[in-house]
Amino acid sequence: MHVPDGFLDAPTSVVTGVVAAGGVAVALRKARGELDDRTAPMAGLVAAFIFAGQMINFPVGAGTSGHLLGGALAAVLVGPWTGALCLSVVLLVQALFMADGGVTALGTNITLMGLVGCFAGYAVFRLVSAVLPRRTSSVAPAAAVGALVSVPVAAAVFTLLFAVGGTAPVDTGAVLTAMLGWHTVIGVGEAVVTGLVVASVVAARPDLVHGARHLVETRELEIRKAATT
User: What are the structural domain ranges in the chain?
Assistant: First the structure.
């Protein structure tokens, strides 16, 4: 989903750049409430994993390939604000040193993958978690559903931006159909990767997973109460 330079006109790129800068500024403040001395190292590990994961492309048909976006994964593991910062760092490095996504389109890519991807994925994760049993084994499937939905949502937002400021002579309806079609397939791969990674981390250290923290704290409180009675 990396948007290249020149795919959106200058005014649209400026607006998304302002949105991205504002989002990152807020995330820098909000992330302090998501991390502590015990969980802070997870942010670096998540950023490194997503950076490596985005280097691996998988075929989805008709010569098209997809790769991990990582928004929902980051949001569930370290929180949506910290996750947005992780994605922003990854996208910045890719744009500056690997020509993966344009420099002038950096704001667009951070908006789509870092903000929309993280918060859409985390919102769906919370909704699904609310209807699943309250246990740590429910975290991974809820994260997988969040990942599945976050990818086509980000694709739909891109289509909206293209309708406003796209520079290619392509019908917006055709762009929407193609983006949602292919990114729904990519979302399936995203869901599989996210579910497996979250399940592995939750199985080993559920106390380090932002999306499982409330379950662990509730369990610890119940154990303490049982021990004192």
Answer: 10-228
CA distances from residue 31 to 78, 82, 113, 129, 198 in whole angstroms, order as listed: 9, 5, 17, 22, 20
Q: pTM to 2 decimals?
A: 0.90
What are 127-162's pLDDT values in tens digits?
999 999 999 999 999 999 999 999 999 999 999 999
Residue 6 makes CB contacts below 8 A (sequence gap 6+) with: 102, 104, 167
Q: pLDDT tens across 186-218, in order?
A: 999 999 999 999 999 999 999 999 999 888 765
Strands (E), 45-119: 57-61, 64-67
Nearest to residue 8, comparing CAs of 170, 141, 165, 153? 165
CA-based nearest residue to 122, from 159, 169, 162, 82: 82
10-228, CATH topology level: Arp2/3 complex 21 kDa subunit ARPC3 (1.10.1760)
pLDDT in tens, 1-23: 788 898 899 999 999 999 999 99
| Contacts of 49 by beta carbon, 8 Å cutoff, 6+ apart | 70, 197
Q: Strand (E) positions, 24-67? A: 57-61, 64-67
Dihedral over alpha carbons 79, 85, 68, 104 (to 10 degrees): 150
